[in-house]
Amino acid sequence: MAKLILFLLFICKLALSADTVYDIRGASPLLDANMTQFLDKWRFDTITPVQSGVYPNVIVNGDPARTNIALTFDDAPDENNTAHLLDILKSRHIKAAFFMIGTTMEESNATVVKRADEEGHLVLNHTFTHPHLSNLDENNITDQLDRAATRIEEITGHYPILYRPPYGSINPLVVQTVNVHGLTTVLWSLDSLDWTLKDPDAVVENVTAHIRNGDIILMHRNHVSVAALPAVIDRLSKMGYTFLRLDELLGIKAYR
Ligand SMILES: [Zn+2]
C-alpha cells in the first residue's frame, strides 16, 4: 500500500512539473453569457499553443510545486490608484510587478513610476499605446514595445525585457517578433477580473477561491483592486502562500 501511494505521488509530481502551463482561472458572475463564452474561448485559444510548445517563451505561471505566487498590476501609472497600491504593498512588505503603458508615463505620472522602481517593484512593459498587438505588423509590434521600454529606461534606468500584451492579444507573429528581440511574454494564470467585478469583496473571493501554487495574479490599477488588495494579501498569506516578485517567482531577469 505504501509503495502504491509513493508511486501515485511520483506520478502526480511528474504530471505537475515545473514546466506545467496552467489553464487560466478566475470567474465573475457579472459577465453575461456572451462575455463568458468570449473569455473562455480567448483563454483556450491563447493557452493551448503555449501548453503544446507552439508559442515558445510565453509565461503563464510559476512552479506548481511551490507555494510562491506573484502580484502583477496592469495599465499603470495613473495619478491616484498606482500610489495607493504602492502604499498598501509597502505596508505589507511585498514587491510586485507593474506593467506600464508608455503614453501614460508623462510629467506628473513619471514620479510614481520612479517611486515604484525605488521601492523595489518591477516596472515592466505594457506597450506604448495599449493596442491589440495581434492586429499589428512586425515593425509596429517592435515600435510599440521599444518606445515603452525606452520611456521606462529614461525614468528608472532599466530597460525591461518582460512585457505583457494588452488584452493578452498574441499570435504567431507577435511571439516570433518579440522573441527575436529578446523579450519574454508574460501572461497570467489567475485573473482577478477586477474590471468586471465592481465589488472589492467579490475580487477577494474570486482570487482566494481559485489560487494555486505558482500563480501569477492579474490585477489593474483601478479603485476596485486598491480596495481589494489588503484583504487579498492577508487572506492568501494566511492560506500559506508567499508573495515573490515576478522575476524571483520565475527565476528570470526582468531588465536588459
Ligand atoms: Zn492593459
Task: Summarize the structure in words.
The protein is of the alpha/beta class and 256 residues long. The protein has one domain: TIM Barrel, CATH 3.20.20.370. The protein is built from 9 helices and 9 strands. It has helices at residues 2-15, 33-51, 81-91, 107-118, 138-156, 172-180, 200-210, 223-238, 246-250, and strands at 58-59, 68-76, 97-100, 122-125, 162-163, 184-186, 190-191, 216-220, 242-243. The strands form 2 sheets. Strands 2, 3, 4, 7, 8 and 9 form a 6-stranded parallel sheet that branches. Strands 1-6-5 form a 3-stranded parallel sheet, with helices on one face. Strand 2, helix 3 (81-91) and strand 3 form a beta-alpha-beta unit. Helix 3 packs parallel to helix 8 (223-238). The model has no long low-confidence stretch (mean pLDDT 94). The structure holds zinc ion. Zinc ion binds at residues 74-75, 126, 130, 166.
